Amino acid sequence: MSSSERDTTRVFEHRQLLAAVLDAAASLILVMDAEGRLVRWNRACEELLGYRQAELEAPFALLELLPVGERKAAETCVRALLGGESPLSAEFHWRTRRGDLRLIEWSLTALRDSHGEITHMVGTGIDVTEARRWAEERMEGEARLRHMADHDALTGLFNRRRFEEELHRHMAQGRRYGMSGALLLLDLDDFKQVNDTHGHGMGDSVLTAVAMVLRRRLRESDILARFGGDEFAVLMPVGGAPRARELAGLLATAVRTDVATPAGRLSASVGIAVLDESSTPDELLSSADDAMYAMKGSKRAVVRHLRPVE
Predict the structure, then answer these.
(1) Which residue from 38, 111, 139, 184 has the highest number of Cβ atoms inside 10 Å of its Cβ?
(2) 230 part of the active site
């Protein structure tokens, strides 16, 4: 065998070895020339997509496998590679022969010849479809758990634990920048009659209606929670006693006029505690609770206040 024949044999063997290595790789590997023609892709690409290389050798035929909305971004990526930006990372969906969309995470590199001219583009990809789906499902699950931990299951309002966190946060901020706001506790009067006479299902419907009515009467900055049973809490972060008194009357009136039950119209008792730096959140909650129950026993006023209005 002549030297030329040995060289030819070695080149052939090297190409066979390279092809075997590419096909043995678990990653998706493809090579395109500077005109966008598919020069080589490995078995992983073929098995994922269901297409043979010969079916995709027209210039930029690979772009046709992408959803229409992603093709412009892919073209921009190719132009960047040909312009000398290398390596690049990108994510694109590929549509398989079966019609499935697979999300591929690509690492893209431009190859140059001995004169520095870009001749080929190499892409190494990983199918991250399932991993991304699992991550999204995990995030959604964690979000649901956080929502369940922070919200009342019946009304969707904040629960007592989350409300107390917001109260602590607001008071800590107030001690630094100036205290403002008030705490309101609202309890439905004689709500037990609804449950006892018409069942807990009707009682739940009434509580849900009360939550909706209260939410509509509050500002976006106000924080509303269900403490449990027929007791609700409002953190009014801005304003003092006059505004709190006005809001308490508004909420009590809304419950009386806008919430109908089989047992008749409801009434509500509202206790107010104006926020101040000398009180702790627990003390304020206790004071508002005392004011609310004192109001329940009073027939002289709609709302009993914790302290005189200045």
Answers:
(1) 184
(2) yes
- Alpha-carbon 31 to chain mean position: 38
In Å, what is the CA distance from 65 to each residue of 31, 72, 179? 16, 13, 60
**What are the structural domain ranges in the chain?**
3-133, 154-305
Structure confidence by residue, pLDDT tens digits, 225-239: 999 889 999 999 998
**Burial (0-12, 13-18, 19+ Cβ within 10 Å), 219:** exposed
Query: Of 214, 284, 205, 273, nearest to 245 (Cα)?
Result: 273
pTM for the predicted model, two decimal places: 0.64
Please state which CATH class domain 3-133 belongs to: alpha beta
From 152, 187, 222, 230, the catalytic residue: 230
Under CATH, which number does the domain 154-305 receive? 3.30.70.270
d(CA 103, CA 185) in angstroms, rounded, equals 51
Dist. CA 20–CA 156, nearest whole Å:
59
